[in-house]
Amino acid sequence: xxxxxxxxxxxxxxxxxxxxxxxxxxxxxxxxxxxxxxxxxxxxxxxxxxxxxxxxxxxxxxxxxxxxxxxxxxxxxxxxxxxxxxxxxxxxxxxxxxxxxxxxxxxxxxxxxxxxxxxxxxxxxxxxxxxxxxxxxxxxxxxxxxxxxxxxxxxxxxxxxxxxxxxxxxxxxxxxxxxxxxxxxxxxxxxxxxxxxxxxxxxxxxxxxxxxxxxxxxxxxxxxxxxxxxxxxx
Length: 234
Description:
The structure is a single chain. By secondary structure, this protein is α+β, with helices and mostly antiparallel strands. It contains seven helices and twelve strands. It is about 25% helix and about 30% strand. The strands form two sheets. It has a ten-stranded antiparallel sheet with strand order 6-7-3-4-5-8-12-11-10-9, with helices on both faces. The model is unreliable at about 1-30 and about 230-234 (pLDDT under 50).
């Protein structure tokens, strides 16, 4: 994460104001007061809806119709892991909020393994994580995959006051370390990861999946690395 130094007041204002005030238009051509990150509704079944889509129900094809067709599709895999199928918007406008978005798609490990075997190429991202391109034959399957989680990285940094004003008081704050806090909204299926040193991340999942997808990974200690894994990371 890049370090953000707020030296004087107008710099802080410049970072926050784009998240508070409307801009004249959005790249998707929608209403600047709609599809905003805090406009989350929950229906009578307990299912959440945000950005005009439904986490855990909407497919990638449906989301592309709502938010734009141009996405980067790939399998993202750390060493020793099968990986996850993801779609990435490098720049997206949600109402008057700009940012980047990552969609994690629901697929079985067996299907992802088969995709990796057909993949035309793989490249390293940060550290040893791999980005594996999809074979054209797998694009249709990816499009019909249900979106399990939505991660939004707003272009503007968020202060706690902005989070509370827009999203309300969280059910719980989970502090990972000094300067890194999770604001948990289980009934909305929302986890806001606030960082003092980098960009914030808003994670949306179906409320029924919140415990397994958000809380359990946060509260489960990492498994100790084997000798082979330690050597590989050095």
